[in-house]
Amino acid sequence: MGEVRVRAGRQARQAERAHKGQGVGRPYILRNIPTYDVLSEENLIRIEAAADRVLAETGIEFRDDPVALDHWKTAGAKVEGVRVRFEPGMLREILKSAPSEFTQHARNPAKSVRIGGRNVVFSPAYGSPFVMDLDRGRRFGTIEDFRNFIKLAQSSPNLHHSGGTICEPTDVAVNKRHLDMVLAHIELSDRPFMGSVTAEERSEDSIEMARILFGAGFVNDHCVILGNVNVNSPLVWDGTMTRSLRAYARANQAAVVVPFILGGAMGPVTNAGGIVQSLAETMAGCALTQLERKGAPVIFGNFLSSMSLRSGSPTFGTPEPAIGSQVIGQLARRLNLPLRCSGNFTTSKLPDGQAMMEGTMSMLAAIHCGANFILHSAGFLDGLLSMSYEKFMLDADLCGALHAYLDGIRIDDDQLAVEAFAEVGPGNHFFGCSHTMRHYQTAFWDSELSDNEPFEKWEAAGSADAARRANRLWKKRLAEYEAPPLDVGVREALHDFVGRKKAGVADAWY
Amino acid sequence: MGEVRVRAGRQARQAERAHKGQGVGRPYILRNIPTYDVLSEENLIRIEAAADRVLAETGIEFRDDPVALDHWKTAGAKVEGVRVRFEPGMLREILKSAPSEFTQHARNPAKSVRIGGRNVVFSPAYGSPFVMDLDRGRRFGTIEDFRNFIKLAQSSPNLHHSGGTICEPTDVAVNKRHLDMVLAHIELSDRPFMGSVTAEERSEDSIEMARILFGAGFVNDHCVILGNVNVNSPLVWDGTMTRSLRAYARANQAAVVVPFILGGAMGPVTNAGGIVQSLAETMAGCALTQLERKGAPVIFGNFLSSMSLRSGSPTFGTPEPAIGSQVIGQLARRLNLPLRCSGNFTTSKLPDGQAMMEGTMSMLAAIHCGANFILHSAGFLDGLLSMSYEKFMLDADLCGALHAYLDGIRIDDDQLAVEAFAEVGPGNHFFGCSHTMRHYQTAFWDSELSDNEPFEKWEAAGSADAARRANRLWKKRLAEYEAPPLDVGVREALHDFVGRKKAGVADAWY
């Protein structure tokens, strides 16, 4: 494990160079376009003031976690029962100790990612109970599906992170699946990953496995695992979540703090009201990490959504949350915290036009809002309930396009091409000119899945739609997959840990 | 026709109120979100300087139009044969007389649109020789298809404009189809429309028909018809186009000036080089309108595209043109001209995931770049070669979503909902609270085509994908279509004009 650290220095320098490059295959993206700021500073201040009022007047409940309540008392908050109220400005002050940017280390140091600042990291979707593919339709996810998605993510040059609970492996007991999931991430991927959060003990198991991989000392000083914790909106932090959040913070690992607000259900039906609530809930959660361990990394998360006013069903990939995400981005930057926001969302049950329309709108909102860690970059269908094999491939392809988008545009004399016009002259084509020859190989992003052929050629090849092509590609990728090398001693130690943890413990299924 | 003008005053005031509202059904959108500016002023100035150098050193050819060459000589440009070179700054000076914003009048004054400034107008796609639907596949467009698409546009509350050559009616002779197209726009829609540009005479016929509808005096003082003219890139203006451009300008009608640049073919392979070229070509075309008639309305147009480096095929809806469009928007605003830019583009041959992924990316670029007149908002598949009935419906649905997107977010005490949190309290839902009851009917955009139902309900209803639902919807819309009322005298006069123009003229098919 000392070796991991020795390699880290050299390979981190390589990564530092690599991530500044162009094209896919970089460990993460350094954005070269500005964020899209939709609100004036005056209106941002109004939102902050409204959140401060909610925190001071209504407050937040912290249930089933006396330690959290003690932290708040010590910090000077007003605690009555489980209700905690905060003086305006208090949480902002606490949050000053959280880093604005940090590295999450991968077991392959060349794949470590920077989270925060201008950095962008794409991670697969998280948390679906179901999986889907064109051949077998919808079914409950299994550990085999889970492992397949890790393999597909690892094989994609367009993603940067192995993710966490890519789908629920419902064939493994609830109290043991975190062990199999973390093991799969470590064995099948050499990218950074996320641990479990469904119980404090499972969070600690996840972190312990990271210690086996990286060494306990290294883990104490470096972020190597993330835990995604959800607020029980509106205005409730459940003890299961705050205990897990504190477990990650205590170990100096980053919690991702995420309210999931369906406007009109778990929050106000107005976009502005949802943002106020999200800001209040996330600030409180992020601040709690700092009370557990000052300086621990934490990610300011967000998940706004809307609802169909005809059916009452949740809707995703709609315009209001897209606008709202961009406002959340502005608020996170004013807090100087790394941001997780938006992702690729849809209610469609197929990898069809609806799925990609909604997915692209919500994913571009994640890009424009300045999100640093984009959980849910690839795979969701069915209103977050299903991971789709085909949608995963289509979304990963979109992530490839977004590399080029985030690279923006270079302006220099060669790119401006004034001499090329003189060389080619009016009415002639640029195919063979020296400027084209010099640049054509790197000029444009090239999709793996889009069909750009003429109609006749596409028809002659079988008239496949994008979903069908994606179906072929995920099968090809799984067939070609090779696991990245893993130190034999580490592997044995991990299996030993998992075996000991499982031994003699009855399966629990809820 | 006098009546049209009397009505105009009252209904224009209604429209003035209506367009400030929320939701679809407005005559056009007044954007409430900022533009997304990706480049610094310093880099914009470098692009402008490069365009100035291309205009001064390489210049532009104006072929087969001696009048255009005379205009340039009189204006002080350097004319050698058909090559025209421009001193830096000369075109900008000429362009100062073009209006930054103007109204295009509709025959129903409540549907007149403002073009320029913060206004956004969605218009159907333009120019495909083929049409497609799920039942009959791809085939050449006919006048029946053309009329169908006008009906579908007119029926959609999400579009604002009737468009122009929505598809080529290939069953009508080339030298006569402009008459049938303009007649169809006037008879089947009461929205603004575009005329023909394929020959000077056809442009003049189109404008003459507008005079029959609106009155010659009104047309001389107001914009009632647009003509979309393309540059023969690189750096060539063809006489057919400049004669049409001048015909529109002479009649005080707005030309839309559009270079269509496939990077690496008709322009440099670099994004920056394509933008330089586009700026140079468009400035020259727009300036020519001002030499023909000072103060004539004109729209600064743009169409950047990329190419697949594997196959050499053109690609659409890719990231580089999306970024490029946003730069073009910045440049157009520095010229203070109304902008047409980007639209809904794809190379997909089906209304599938690829189509909507590419379409949404390019359409959002049109929104973010500040485009005022978004030609090609709905219908394209197949690399611009086909109009698809299903894609038209899906794209129009996206246009509906973009109404909500462009409305941005309102920040006031009621929207911020601080009191609602006090009313509901932690852990309770917002379903029935007074804030939700007050706002739920207008809170969220509701798609006509997206399926937000639970999986089981969707499956029980037949598991239709978005394309299939769109197939049903366009048939329903056509069946329900009712033509807007048209004055009998105007109708007769138009038919009389068309009959006279066609009489005794042999059909030409090229």
Automatic annotation (TrEMBL), chains A, B:
Gene3D superfamilies: Trimethylamine methyltransferase-like
Biological process according to GO: methylation
The entry's keywords: Methyltransferase, Transferase
Enzyme Commission number, as recorded: 2.1.1.-
Disordered: annotated span: 1-21
InterPro entries: MttB-like_sf, MTTB_MeTrfase
GO molecular function: methyltransferase activity
Stored Pfam families: MTTB
Family: Belongs to the trimethylamine methyltransferase family.
Protein name, entry field: Methyltransferase
Organism expressing this protein natively: Rhodobacter calidifons
